[in-house]
């Protein structure tokens, strides 16, 4: 079989060179026009819990942020839980182990958040943050040069 291929290639040199050149051109064109994600997503899966309640930062910390952080520490495959309190707002970042599916992480967060909701004061509005990683924010701003000089 290999001997026949070599004999065919030797007797049809121009056909083989033409096919090689055509494949090289198709490959070059494909390389230039293939969209490429050059930035790998190295972020750990995280879920943001945002709460709103018109109170001071220390009241938010004691009555909203701390109960949510305490509840999230018991969730499976949680690596870190970080809570931040401001006037009227509380943010809890639940960082999961690498390789955890983001939708599984969000469902576990909702499950454990439901137990913490009973310990929060009435009037606190709590919701999950956007379904995206930190890397996704990079793609919101694109600088383009229509002249293609820069």
Written account of the structure:
The protein is an alpha+beta fold and 150 residues long. It has helices at 2-11, 13-33, 57-72, 102-117, and strands at residues 46-52, 78-86, 89-96, 125-128. Strand 2 and strand 3 form a beta hairpin.
Topology record:
Blueprint: H1 2-11, H2 13-33, E1 46-52, H3 57-72, E2 78-86, E3 89-96, H4 102-117, E4 125-128
Antiparallel strand pairs: 1-3, 1-4, 2-3
Helix pairs in contact: 3-4
Largest sheet: 4 strands, antiparallel
CATH superfamily of the largest domain: Multidrug efflux transporter AcrB pore domain
Structural class: alpha+beta
Which CATH C-level class of the largest domain is it?
Alpha Beta
In short, what is this structure?
Helices cover 42% and strands 19% of the residues.
Features:
alpha+beta, Alpha-Beta Plaits, 4 helices, 42% helix, elongated
